[in-house]
Design goal:
Strand content: 15-25%
CATH topology of the largest domain: Arc Repressor Mutant, subunit A
Largest sheet: 4 strands, mixed
Order of helices and strands: HHHHHEHEEEHEHEHEHHEH
Helix content: 40-55%
Distance between the termini: 24 Å
Number of helices: 12
CATH class of the largest domain: Mainly Alpha
CATH architecture of the largest domain: Orthogonal Bundle
Length: about 280
């Protein structure tokens, strides 16, 4: 089941990459399906299972003009919610997330005395590596299956004095909570992060971007009180240790392009459009 979910995502990612690259040519369903070696019928069914929309309807969420319009819509939604004390429609899908920085001593000692459990799991966006402690989630990255060893090595460098144990039975329940939007789960997820005060401030601002919405790097820089530090905001977003829960994929350029992402622009576009489409289903 996990293998099928992962394979299906990579087929979808390849198809989205083709659609984006050949957007002006307006490829039809047969064209796109051929690129992922599926019949039109099976590809459309695969896409519907993934997001609940046909590829043609999904395409609207990938356009620059649409994303640019969403930048200002997001600003108005957040502002109105703050004034009225009400939740927007997208908040039904939002997770309650709290960010906690590790203590200075734990930061210096690379997690000495901390017990960490980790696992690899299938998600709607491919395989992921997740690590948790008794205090909360401390890592979440998307990976390719053949890079799983490298991902663990990179993680263990940051926490090399902690006790690391492979416990997918413990981490699986967190994956269910994270990737089931609209399931009605109100449990708060605590995130334990290693970062500078500025990085943590940026990550907290990203958490406040609603599900299915986007903000520009300039908007986030202004919101945290550093309007001249756009590049620093982009750098902090790129060092995000807990992907998806700290939604750096929701930050784009003010021109409406998605910008860079450590796991590729196509995956970032897939994540943004999947969230927006989920609200429309």
């Amino acid at each position: 089941m996990a293998k099928d979910l992962t394979l299906n995502y990579y087929r979808i990612e390849k198809a989205i990459g083709y659609i984006v690259t050949h957007f002006k040519d307006q490829p039809d369903l047969d064209d796109i399906a051929e690129r992922v070696n599926l019949s039109s019928f099976h590809f459309q069914r695969l896409f519907l299972d993934w997001v609940g929309l046909t590829p043609k309807k999904f395409l609207q969420y990938l356009t620059v003009d649409y994303l640019k319009s969403k930048l200002y819509e997001t600003h108005n939604v957040i502002e109105a919610a703050n004034i009225a004390g009400l939740s927007s429609q997208s908040r039904v899908y939002d997770l309650f997330v709290n960010i906690e920085g590790v203590s200075p001593q734990q930061f210096k000692s690379a997690g000495q005395g901390l017990e960490i459990w980790y696992g690899y799991h299938a998600t709607p966006f491919g395989m992921c590596f997740i690590a948790i402690t008794s205090k909360g989630i401390c890592d979440l990255h998307f990976i390719d299956e053949n890079r799983s060893g490298n991902e663990f090595a990179l993680f263990s460098q940051k926490w090399h004095f902690a006790t690391l144990t492979h416990r997918p039975d413990l981490t699986q329940c967190f994956i269910q909570k994270i990737f089931k939007p609209g399931s009605g789960n109100q449990e708060k997820l605590n995130l334990l992060v290693q970062g500078t005060p500025f990085q943590v401030k940026v990550w907290e601002a990203l958490v406040n971007i609603p599900f299915g919405s986007v903000r520009s790097y300039q908007q986030v820089a202004g919101e945290i009180g550093y309007p001249g530090c756009v590049r620093s905001v982009a750098s902090a977003a790129g060092k995000n240790p807990i992907l998806y829960l700290i939604p750096c994929h929701r930050i784009i350029t003010r021109e409406g392009t998605t910008g860079n992402f450590q796991y590729g622009r196509i995956r970032k576009q897939s994540m943004i459009a999947w969230e927006m489409a989920s609200l429309a289903v």
